[in-house]
């Protein structure tokens, strides 16, 4: 058996796995903030489209959304499994969409005020079942995961990544992956856990 690659992983990551994406963003790290926006802006934009925000106005609404995120990031607390950054962002995006339609509803009818009023009413009528992203976001969430995986890939030794990928993504048996990679089953399980932990931190779903 060859040596476990975990020490190489730590050298590659520079111990960045000890902090979450949100922790780095709270510290004012520009790179972390850029990654956060790059990860989540497409999903927030899809919510805006679902709610009927005009395409030409989505950029302005997103600017309001992420300005609010930046100003209130310290308030996001993960106290349970259901508390995700994605859900928190959804709430902020919905509130900003409401603000958008309120401002539109105040405009003259010729500028779309009546339609805006109807859209606002639809959003205000959202029930508890709509307090989380809908199932039709699956493709965008898949893309979100893909971007997050790409962001953390370079932090791990090739065998660590192959072990994670084989078990977590391909659904192969731990024993088979271990045999193929010349690792113990325990090392494969550790590799899977390490990558999943890092992925959750990149997505903001773990505390800093």
Molecular structure report:
This protein is an all-alpha fold. The protein has one domain: Rna Polymerase Sigma Factor, Chain: A (Orthogonal Bundle). The protein contains 10 helices and no strands. The chain starts with 5 loop residues before the first helix and ends in a 6-residue tail after the last helix. Mean pLDDT is about 80; it is low at about 10-20 and about 125-135.
How is this structure best summarized?
This protein has 208 residues and is mainly α.
**CATH topology (fold) name:** Rna Polymerase Sigma Factor, Chain: A
CATH class: Mainly Alpha
Describe the sheet with the most strands. none
Named at the architecture level, the CATH assignment is: Orthogonal Bundle
Query: How many β-strand runs?
Result: 0
| The CATH homologous superfamily | RNA polymerase sigma factor, region 2, helix turn helix motif
Roughly what is the average pLDDT, rounded to an integer?
79
Q: How far apart are the first and last residues' alpha carbons, in Å?
A: 35 Å
Shape: elongated
Rg (C-alpha, Å): 21 Å
Secondary-structure-based class equals mainly alpha
Overall structural domain count: 1
Low-confidence residue ranges: 10-18, 126-133
């Amino acid at each position: 058996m060859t040596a476990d690659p975990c020490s190489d992983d730590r050298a590659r990551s520079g111990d960045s796995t000890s902090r979450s994406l949100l922790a780095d963003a709270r510290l004012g790290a520009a790179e972390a903030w850029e990654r956060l926006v790059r990860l989540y802006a497409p999903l927030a934009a899809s919510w805006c489209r679902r709610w009927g925000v005009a395409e030409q106005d989505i950029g302005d609404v997103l600017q309001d959304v992420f300005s609010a995120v930046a100003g209130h990031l310290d308030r996001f607390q993960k106290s349970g499994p259901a508390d995700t950054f994605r859900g928190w962002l959804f709430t902020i995006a919905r509130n900003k969409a409401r603000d958008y339609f309120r401002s539109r509803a105040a405009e003259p009818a010729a500028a779309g005020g009546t339609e805006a009023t109807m859209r606002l009413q639809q959003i205000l009528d959202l029930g508890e079942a709509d307090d989380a992203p809908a199932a039709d976001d699956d493709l965008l969430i898949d893309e979100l995961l893909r971007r997050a995986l790409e962001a953390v890939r370079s932090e791990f030794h090739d065998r660590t990544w192959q072990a994670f990928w084989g078990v977590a993504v391909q659904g192969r048996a731990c024993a088979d992956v271990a045999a193929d990679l010349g690792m113990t089953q325990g090392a494969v399980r550790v590799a899977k856990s390490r990558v999943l932990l890092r992925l959750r931190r990149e997505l903001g779903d773990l505390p800093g």
